[in-house]
Amino acid sequence: MKGIILAGGSGSRLYPMTLAVNKQLLPLYNKPLIYYPLSFLIDCHLTEILLITSPQAQGDFVKLLGDGSQFGINISYIIQPCPEGIAQALVLSRSFLQGQGCTLILGDNLFIAPQAASLIRRNAAANFTGALIFASPVQDPERYGVLCFAEDGKLVDIVEKPKQAPSPYAVTGLYCYDASATERAASLKPSARGELEITDLNRSYLKDGLLHCNKLSRGNVWLDTGTPNSLLDAADYVRIIETRQGILLGSPELSALRQGLISRGQLRLLAQKLAATAYGMQLLQLSLEDGT
User: Of 47, 126, 129, 134, which is the most buried if we count CB atoms within 10 A?
Assistant: First the structure.
């Protein structure tokens, strides 16, 4: 299984902050926003990762992340000429995937979700068939794709941005697909807004009885950072956890160490390059501790 980060789009809900900067390059507390989905995929032990972004931003991402070798992974890049829906990411990824399944994560989503990472690792090892989506209860489900359940609890439909939500469960920006996803996505018809909708892709799996849904339990966190308020909320969450509990979140360096992709000595070298910052000092301290 390979990993895909969709980091394109115009970020219009964050204007004027994103008029000149890709939103996934904005700071989320002490790190670029892109670090958080990247570290999550590393936590899933996915070492072949494709980053899809706009023509204007690709060079900035390459400057920031390079080929990923410093994290013990391989990062490839592809341009999304025009944002035409989340499902378009699967079409663009055909040559990268080469018939393999994938985990797709949105570049502006924050997951601190060991439950999801563990499940993805198991699926990757078991030659997963079908599609897996992750759901979380939200206060404003009308902003998302929302799950519709029958009386027996069986998932029967996904409704995109409903005026009257059939449940409080929103589909998060994290998806696992088998090798059929690229062809399924390519066969979709654009919606009224001219996009290949991820909800339509998920419905195609649901129709075939191949869509699985995992409800994130308490202790697993999903935050969408697409608006100024939600971006600030996510930054506050990270700041509070890191400063009060001393737990480093969204660190690809630390995730790489924990997954055995880099050594403690390699982490120390990476930390020394950032030694003038609190983030670098925390990485350095962690590189000296046993059982990190």
Answer: 134
Q: What is the DSSP string of 39-90?
A: HHHHHTT--EEEEEE-TTTHHHHHHHHTTSGGGTSEEEEEE-SS---TTHHH
State the DSSP string of 232-274.
HHHHHHHHHHHHHH----S-HHHHHHHTTSS-HHHHHHHHHTT
pLDDT digits (tens, 9 = 90+) for 247-267: 999 999 999 999 999 999 999
Closest CA to 40 of 223, 250, 258: 250
Among 240, 253, 260, smallest CA distance to 282 is for: 253
* Class level of CATH domain 2-245: alpha beta
Task: Kindly tell me the burial class for residue 194, based on how many C-beta atoms sit within 10 Å of its own C-beta (0-12, 13-18, 19 or more).
Answer: exposed
Report the 10 Å Cβ neighbour count for 230: 17
pLDDT of residue 233: 95
Mean pLDDT for the chain overall: 93
Q: From the CA atom positions of the chain, what is the Rg in Å?
A: 19
